[in-house]
Amino acid sequence: MKLFLVSLALLIGTTSFSQVYDPEHVKAKAVKIYEHALDLLKDGQIKEGVPLLMQSISEDSNFVDAYLSLAGAMGELKKYDQAVKLYEKAKQKDSSYFLIYNLPYSINLAGQGKYEEALAAVNRFLQYPKLNDRSFKSAQYRKRTYEFAVNYAAQHRDAHYDFAPVNLGDSVNTAASEYYPSVTVTDSLLVFTRQTGPAREDFIESRVNGSSFGKWKLIDGDINLETNKGALSVSQDGEWLVFAGQLSTQSYKSFDIYISYYTPQGWSEPQSMGDNINTDSYETGPTLSPDKRALYFVSSRPGGYGGLDLYVSYRQPNGKWGPAINMGPDINSAGDEKAPFIHADNQTLYYTSDGLPGYGNSDLFLVRKKLNGEWGSPENLGAPINTIENEGSLAVSADGLTAYYASDRSDSRGGLDIYKFDLRPDIRPFRTLYVKGKVIDKKTNKPLPSSVELIDNSNRNALMKVQTDELGEYFITLPTGKNYTFAVNRKGYLFFSEVYALSNKQADSVYKKDIYLQPVELNAVSTFNNILFANNSFELPQAGFVELDKLLQVLTENPTLKVEISGHTDNVGKVDDNLKLSTNRAKSIVDYLVGKGIVAARMSYKGYGSTQPVADNNTETGRAKNRRTTFTVVGL
After folding, report:
1. Is 441 helix (H, G, I), strand (E, B) or coil?
2. 521-636 falls under which CATH superfamily?
């Protein structure tokens, strides 16, 4: 309910005993103008009503109701400073008459970010003895939000953080409303939605060069032919676009989710993402994980925890999207959850909720993945990012430093504009590195479409999995602070794996890595890069299990394949000791694979000691290369 109408409802629903102000003694001309203004306010013509209220006050400077209604109108226009001053002016004229207006007064104080003062005001309101049930519940709700704000501020004091959103300017924003921003992992492409007519929304793009945004243009291709569209999101590599719409030829009767692919001619004709995602209910707000294996979205389908819930669907090996999974009661609430955005780190999800504790209406939250891959508890992003208003969608740059969102701040070109601001350190995603390159056939040098995995060495879980394009090219994000194994698989080839020790690497750097795959053929040899045994030990190292699992996959996919596991050492120490050690190391690998179900007859092992060096044993670098374990294809 609008603030000035709240004030009127409270006035009508209660009785106030004035000490000073007497409405019966207001000048007739002021009352007549005031009544005209109220008619405009009730019809939603707030801006038109404001001058009349001002005129009414000028006719009678003691007209308290005119001050109160003007304060309510200013609150509706989000001019909280002016609203608060007007409420306080009315309070000065008659504090007793003002008592029942402490609720809208508190809301405007909260709009200024003065939550402690707002809490005091709403507590004064709740002391009023004749509140109707609706007013009491409304006040209790506001009290909870103010208490949340006060407690949050006490726990998250950061004197160095300055929330200063910057309008992206005329290259992006217009007199129409712009919203739903989305950026690629390289921050080179910004896409968003624009309201271009009473019943039309179009998708817009702006190419980014450093900190400068190029002039907006309609997204190329057929994607803008349909009028009834909404939320959109671009994949981190800029190759896929997912969006919500009600397309005339494909709809499931309500808003559904569609996908379009980038081509040299622009974005392709949209395709429905299938009946595991789309239903007769309302689906919107899609966002793709950086490896394009998970789609997060919003749905009103039956069986949820509130009106709108967050769901996730995983892409299957055949390219189809699996059944939608509700993200559960910790993330979803009895209210509405909307606008998910998964960051390039693949571990931080931002979204809005009006059912979780916050500042009122819809707030922005984040939720992070735990070490076991499950999602943690939602965190409110706090003030001043969150306010008493409805907060919209948020997108975060790949480096985690900059956020983009839509707002109708005072410097808006019209309606909602897209802004950027520095994200507070404690609510930033994990810092990331980027690796790009090609997967290539080692013998022919031809590109190979392949599966590329990023595996967390601490738990052997695949953090990301991407499919290279037809040219064998890949682009993958790697969160810093951990060590990973980079693994590549393609049927008919030996696996590739390499440890990436990134725990001390600088974030936001781009690394290039071309990967050569060895075809499965007789006498093909591959070295285990991760299996680095401790000195004089043949106990399998923890990091090596990732690589052994890949060999297990190769042996399973090629049931007639036979291999020899070979152990090698440098020339330090006694010859017999090195021979025995290398043999035991090779045997430990065979024992592991047998324990996983591979028939022992398909494998042999042999220790070669220091007899087959591949580098100079006179240097430490050379000796490290000679200390290795390999496998050789000895039968097809």
Report:
1. strand
2. OmpA-like domain (3.30.1330.60)
How many of the other CB atoms lie within 10 Å of CB of 85?
15
- What's the CATH fold of domain 175-346+396-425? Neuraminidase (2.120.10)
Q: Parse the chain into domains and list their residue ranges.
A: 3-155, 175-346+396-425, 431-519, 521-636
CATH architecture, domain defined by 3-155:
Alpha Horseshoe (1.25)
124-130: long-range contacts at Cβ-Cβ below 8 A with a sequence spacing of 24 or more?
124/99, 125/99, 125/100, 128/14, 128/99, 128/100, 128/102, 130/14, 130/15
State the first-to-last Cα distance of the chain, in angstroms, to the nearest integer. Answer: 75
- Please determine whether the domains at 175-346+396-425 and 431-519 fall in the same fold group of CATH: no
Give the type of residue at 108: N
Contacts of 594 (CB under 8 A, 6+ apart): 600, 603
**DSSP secondary structure string, 195-222?**
EEETTEEEEEEEEEETTEEPPPEEPSBG
Q: Using the structure block, give the residue that is written with the tokens 């890069």.
A: 529
Range 431-519 classified under CATH 3.40.50.720: no
Q: CB within 8 A of 441, min separation 6: which ones?
A: 447, 448, 493, 516, 517, 519
Least confident window among 14-18, 377-381, 588-592: 14-18
Task: Provide the 3-class DSSP secondary structure of residue 512.
Answer: strand
- Summarize pLDDT for 343-354 with one digit per residue, the tens: 988 899 999 999
pLDDT over 90 (residue 257): yes
- Nearest one of 319, 327, 352 to 240, comparing CA atoms: 319
How does residue 314 score in pLDDT terms, banded at 50, 70 and 90? very high
Dump pLDDT digits (tens) for 554-604.
899 889 999 999 999 999 999 999 999 999 999 999 999 999 999 999 999
| Rg (the chain; Cα; Å) | 32
Chain centroid to CA 413: 27
**Contact call for residues 144 and 120 (beta carbons, < 8 A):** no
CB 309 within 8 Å of CB 353: no
Residue-wise pLDDT tens digits, 465-521: 777 877 788 877 776 666 777 888 888 888 888 877 666 666 656 677 888 998 989
Beta strands in 107-165 (DSSP E): none
